[in-house]
Amino acid sequence: MTDERKIGFYKVEEFQEAVETLSKAILEDNPGYSYIYGVPKSGVILAVALSIATGIPLTDEFDPEINILVVDDICNTGATWEKYRPCDFVCLHANSITKANPTYVAHFGIRDRIVYWWNVK
Q1: Cα dist. 84→71, 88, 108, 114 in Å?
Q2: Phi, psi for 20 (deg, rounded to 5)
Q3: 4, exposed or middle or buried, with CB in 10 Å at 0-12, 13-18, 19+?
Q4: Residue 14 burial (CB < 10 Å; 0-12/13-18/19+)?
Q5: Fewest C-beta in 10 Å: which of 2, 56, 80, 84?
Q6: What's the Cα-to-Cα distance from 105 to each of 2, 18, 37, 74, rounded to whole Å?
Q7: Beta-bridge mates of residue 79
Q8: Under 8 Å between Cβ of 67 and 31
Q9: pTM of the predicted model, to two decimals?
Q10: CATH of domain 7-119
Q11: Rounded to whole angstroms, how far apart are CA atoms 31 and 69?
Q12: Angle at 71 between CA 6 and CA 63, to 5 degrees
């Protein structure tokens, strides 16, 4: 089955704006996160950027018992979000049919396939 959606290229500048928007929201809410955890591969780049922008330390160990912010690039079906519940969740993009309810999202209601600048060969 082919994917009929248009491919959207996510530029570095858009990423930087999203990091600024998300980090401001996180700091304004001030939920007292102990760590930021990036979902392996897909969430690591955003997690590092948010850790730098917010000053919240980065961890590579997921522990739902601590006040941790889980980071991923996109919420499509909600499967990843479900795996890391009950922790707060942040993502760059969420489509309008996702079952996930991310705490922070930069862009909601996407329909296109997203190609991130770090995935371009």
Answers
A1: 10, 8, 20, 23
A2: -65, -45
A3: exposed
A4: middle
A5: 2
A6: 28, 9, 16, 9
A7: none
A8: yes
A9: 0.83
A10: 3.40.50.2020
A11: 10
A12: 145
DSSP run (H or E) holding 79: helix 79-83
Burial 81-115 (b: 16+ CB within 10 A, else e): beebeebbbbbbbbbeebebebbbbbbeebeeebe
Residue recorded with tokens 């089955």 = 1
What one-character-per-residue DSSP string does 8-58 give? EEE-HHHHHHHHHHHHHHHHHH----SEEEEPTTTTHHHHHHHHHHH-PPE
Token readout for 61 is 């160990």
Which residue in the block uniquely carries the two structure tokens 């739902």? 64
Per-residue burial over 50-72, b if 16 or more Cβ lie within 10 Å, else e, is bbebbebeebeebeeeeebbbbb
